[in-house]
Amino acid sequence: MAALAGLVLVSLLLASDSVVRGSAMDTLSQTVRSNLLAVDVQEDGSLQVGEEFRYYQNGVYMLIYSGEEALLAGQVPVSFTASETFENGVTRLVDSEQDDYYVLDLWYAKGWEDGVWVRGLMEAPEPDQTIQNLLSLAGVVIPAFMLLSALGGYWIAKRAFRPLEEITATAQAISEGADLSARIQRRRGSNEFTRLTDAFNQMFERLECSFEAEKRFTADASHELRTPVSVIKGACEYAEKFDETPEERAETIAMIHRQALRMSGLITQLLSMTRLDQGTEGVALEEVDLSGLVRSVCAEQAYPTHRLTLEVEEGLTVRGSAPLLTRLLQNLIDNGFKYGREEGQVWVSARREGEEIQLSVRDNGIGIPKEQQDKIWQRFYQVDPARSHDTGAGLGLSMVQKIAQAHGGYMTVDSVPNLGSQFTLHLPVSQA
Ligand code: ADP
Questions:
Q1: 308 with 278: CB under 8 angstroms?
Q2: CA of 212 relative to ligand 1 center, distance in Å
Q3: Is the CB of 252 under 6 A from ligand 1?
Q4: What is the percentage of the chain residues whose pLDDT exceeds 70?
């Protein structure tokens, strides 16, 4: 601001200086030329000066000299002490001891040789009083102006950056773990700060969600692990006090073994879910022969073959991870038997349907009530915990869904209580 103000002032001074000079030289030139019209030289060489001739006009002194530069008419101002040689038609500034003068000479010619010099002298104007005033005023105004603009600038900047301070404070509060539910207040209007606020709030929202999910997951997992641990603890205490015969001990050991197996299964599932979540269980996609995979899973597992029917189209290949697809299929078939009726049937089918490859597992079991069908995909959700008490923890379907998503597909369920359920994996053919 200071530089700008200085620049304006200097250009103002320069401009006004050149305007003053310019107008002084104009006045001089006009006055000398108009007076020249009143000068004449007779045949006999005598000088004739008309009435219109003004010896002093508009600050210009008019002088007439002979060809030999002798003063014929007019009076040289006292402060013009320089002896300036004559130069026709050139206005110039001449340094004189006391004052500076603008000088313009014009040659009035009569015949070849005769003539007179008409000279105009004009005192060079002093810097204008207005400019002097302006300068002294600027000495006061500019510092005041700078002070004001500094204060104003500080105020404006502080106001403009207040939202940034809020954002920083909230982000700090969150990073110090004080309050994950804190949000930055949204300001009216739409500018960069509002967008920044929105972006931060969205980030906080996601942070809070994932933090809550982690918390819930840890709580659920420890809860699920506590059950088998307390069963084992109880069984050991009971055995120590009451088991006497080897048969009784064997029974307790078998129970402890079952619970240990359940825990180990649970831990394996939890680990692989976490890896899927974190994306560390590398879903190395490769060409998988889906038809072959379905057949081998059904053959290798000890399923009751008379209750399992396969309807598999030949030659279905997908890009996927064979271990993950195997786990998905095993989970679905296990559930088909687990939630089937006694001697119930399970059908496994794989086919191409338009733009999709569909892998379905259907049973004629207990089915799932409509209102629960959305929830079965959640971790640890069980429609009837009593029914899957020993073998599951409600993690299977959540894993199935994750595997489907990791393959760019999705899961659907179609189920009617007491009639049966059908779970289908849909994979886009582009993935196939
Ligand atoms: P779980 O370990 O309990 O089997 P899942 O995640 O595999 O956990 O399944 C979640 C819940 O969905 C089960 O508790 C069960 O109530 C229901 N469910 C899953 N598959 C079937 C099915 N084929 N028929 C009926 N209910 C099922």
A1: no
A2: 24
A3: no
A4: 94
3-state secondary structure of 85: coil
Instruction: State whether the beta carbon of 340 lies less than 6 angstroms from ligand 1.
Output: no
For residue 125, what is the DSSP state? P
The pair of three-digit structure tokens given for residue 60, joined into one six-digit string: 């210009």
Whether 413 has a pLDDT exceeding 90, the answer reads yes
- Alpha-carbon gap, residue 158 to 152, rounded angstroms: 10
What are phi and psi for residue 92, nearest 5 degrees?
A: -145, 160
Does the pLDDT value for residue 281 go beyond 70? no
Rounded to the nearest 10 degrees, the angle between the axes of helix 192-242 and helix 162-175 is 10
Q: Name the residue of 364, 397, 424 whose CB sits within 8 Å of the most ligand 1 atoms, as the mutation to test its pocket.
A: 397
Nearest to 226 by CA among 188, 263, 176, 264: 263
Query: Is residue 421 within 6 Å of ligand 1 at its C-beta?
Result: yes
How far is it, in rounded angstroms, from Cα 428 to Cα 274? 25
- Report CA(263)–ligand 1 centroid distance (Å): 18
Q: How much distance in Å is there from the Cα of 323 to the middle of ligand 1? A: 21
Can you read off the two tokens belonging to residue 252? 């307790």
292 CA to middle of ligand 1, Å?
26
369-386 CB burial, b ≥16 within 10 A, e <16:
eeeebeebbebbbbbeee
Q: Over 70: is that where the pLDDT of 113 sits? A: yes
In ligand 1, the atom with minimum distance to the C-alpha of 420 is 24
Backbone phi, then psi, for 98, in 5-degree steps?
Answer: -90, -55
Gap from CA of 103 to ligand 1 centroid (Å)? 114
Q: How far is the CA of 334 from the centre of ligand 1 (A)?
A: 9
Q: What is the pLDDT of residue 292?
A: 92
For ligand 1, is residue 397 a contact (CB within 6 Å)?
yes
- CA separation for the pair 425, 320 (Å, rounded): 13
Are 317 and 290 in contact, with CB atoms under 8 Å apart?
Answer: yes
All structural domains of the chain, each given as residue ranges with its CATH number in brackets, are: 2-131 (3.30.450), 192-278 (1.10.287.130), 286-431 (3.30.565.10)
Tell me the pTM: 0.53
